[in-house]
User: Fold this.
Amino acid sequence: EWFRQLIHLRRHTPSLNDGDLNHLKVRFDEEKQWLTMDRGQVRILCNLGQKAVELENRDGFSPLVSSRDDIKVADGKVLLPPDSIVILSAQAA
Assistant:
């Protein structure tokens, strides 16, 4: 089901079909083991570490797809448990 959701998202999200790498912004923290990618109206947040991390979501992007049910998006923050990913959008899902 996870892969079906990702395939659907890729096919139906214009921001993910733009091949211009100038529209991609990547940030990471090697020590805390998180990575974020912004591409147009889509934001991907990844926690690759073994501890939960809290990342900012100042723009109030809404969750589209998440790898775990215990990911929390609220009050301009995203709480990512270990080994998790969430894909957010500036547009309503």
In short: Strands lie at 24-29, 34-39, 42-47, 53-56, 62-66, 72-74, 77-80, 84-89. Residues 2-12 form the longest helix (11 residues).
